[in-house]
Amino acid sequence: MPALLSEVARRAGVSEATASRVLNGRRYVSARARANVEGAARDLAYVPHHAARELSMSRTATVALLVHHGQYPAGGEGTFSSRVIHGVTRALHAAGQDLLYVVVDDDEAARLWTLPAVHRGRSDGTLILGPAFPRGSIARLRAAERPLVLIDNRIPTVSVDSVMADNRSAVEALTEHLVVDHGYRRIACLAGPRAWPSTAERVAGYSAAMAAHRLDARVLNARETTIRDGAALAARLFDDPPEAIVAVNDAMAVGALHRFRGTASGPAIVGFDDIGWARMTDPPLTTVAVDAVAMGALAANLLLARIAHPDAHDGPRIHRVPAVPRIRASCGCDGPTPDVP
Predict the structure, then answer these.
(1) Between the CA of residue 100 and those of 89, 92, 119, 149, 275, what are the distances in Å?
(2) How confident is the model at residue 315 (pLDDT cuts 50, 70, 90)?
(3) Given the DSSP bridges, would you call strands 187-191 and 62-68 parallel, antiparallel or unpaired?
(4) Which range scores top for mean pLDDT: 33-37, 56-60, 184-188, 225-229?
(5) I need a labelling partner for 263 at 20 to 30 A (CA). Which of 102, 105, 192, 306 fits?
(6) How far apart are CA 123 and CA 146, in angstroms?
(7) Helix, strand counts (H, E) of the chain
(8) Residue 38 and residue 54 in contact, taking contact as beta carbons nearer than 8 Å
(9) What DSSP string describes 259-317?
């Protein structure tokens, strides 16, 4: 849900009246209070009611969401992408905005700035979900000075807000669990493209945990992160199977589970995302839970704030959503820990 004025005031340590004066451009507010309120509004992605009314009156009141066809949420409502989209939709509807949902193929991904959906008169700003878009194409779209927020992606060389999971620390903790609690030493990592930020951060977490215990890291990369990719990479481990596998997402973990099913040397396997299938695998999948709905809502509210305040001079930020390990049976545990549903 969008942040309330009272939440901005509480975060800034001022009264609602003071917060209202700042957000409405009034004078007679100290520089310190003004800075605190503006900072709190940015942190909470606050969109003033008057700004929402102006959006609906003078703009399209529509936001474009671009999803690469390779990451289209065909797996149902439990997938990461579908939950992000649910969060986006809920936040937009709460602000009186509509969603223009666009599935983009490879050719269109290479020329995002030409898509009708991102032009004025069709939408007021753009959300881009996932890392499977060329960086140069995103940079070209951003150069058009259109409001833009990335979800599950970040580009340090492009001035744009990003919403990411807390990837590295979560995977480091999960790998630590495999080493310390189970005593595994030979642990492989199934990963996507090295250029994908989420993959790179999760591999970094795995590598850090392995290095901390002076263990050799073994990373296998695929062109995508699908069930098929997980199965294909797992097959490459048959000649020298590890004791455990850290997959950078649940789809790859499911692929590995299927590939090793029935083998005498099947390793422990863990994933990331806690998608709807995770509890239904055999054994149930140990993974990392990310509130993808919250990621979508945060991204939508950040974009609405950028649309409402196009002249804001604060720089782009990477916003992190917590990620928490979910211990089930696929890692070798008996089942869920007592505090995990």
Answers:
(1) 10, 11, 12, 15, 25
(2) confident
(3) unpaired
(4) 184-188
(5) 192
(6) 10
(7) 12, 12
(8) no
(9) HHTT-TTPPEEE-SB--TTGGGSSSPPBEEEE-HHHHHHHHHHHHHHHHH-TT--PPP-
- Considering only the C-alpha atoms of the chain, give the largest distance between any 2 of them, rounded to a whole number of Å: 74
CB hemisphere CA count around 84 (13 angstroms): 26
pLDDT at 58: 57
Output the DSSP codes for 49-111.
HHHHHHHHHHS--EEEEEEEGGG--TT-TTSHHHHHHHHHHHHHHHTT-EEEEEEE-HHHHTT
% of residues, the chain, pLDDT over 70:
90
Count of beta carbons in the 10 Å neighbourhood of residue 283: 15
Decide which of 198 and 95 is more confident: 198
- Asked whether 339 and 312 are in contact (CB, 8 A), the reply is no
Domains and CATH numbers, the chain: 5-43 (no CATH), 49-164+292-321 (3.40.50.2300), 167-290 (3.40.50.2300)
Using the Cα atoms of residue 242, residue 243, residue 249 and residue 250 in order, give the sign of their dihedral. positive
Q: What is the average pLDDT across 55-71? A: 79
Task: Give residue 59's pLDDT.
Answer: 74
The pair of structure tokens assigned to 181 is 């609690």
**pLDDT for the residue 298:** 96
Q: How far is the C-alpha of 174 from the C-alpha of 273, rounded, in Å?
A: 13
Q: Are 149 and 306 in contact (CB under 8 A)?
A: yes
Query: How far apart are the C-alpha atoms of 175 and 88, rounded to whole Å?
Result: 31
Chain centroid to CA 295: 6
Average pLDDT over residues 163-191: 98
pLDDT of 332 above 90? yes
Separation between Cα atoms, residue 42 and residue 44, nearest integer Å:
5
| Rounded alpha-carbon distances, angstroms, from residue 274 to 78, 118, 158, 323 | 9, 32, 30, 10
Q: Which two tokens stand for residue 47?
A: 């969109």
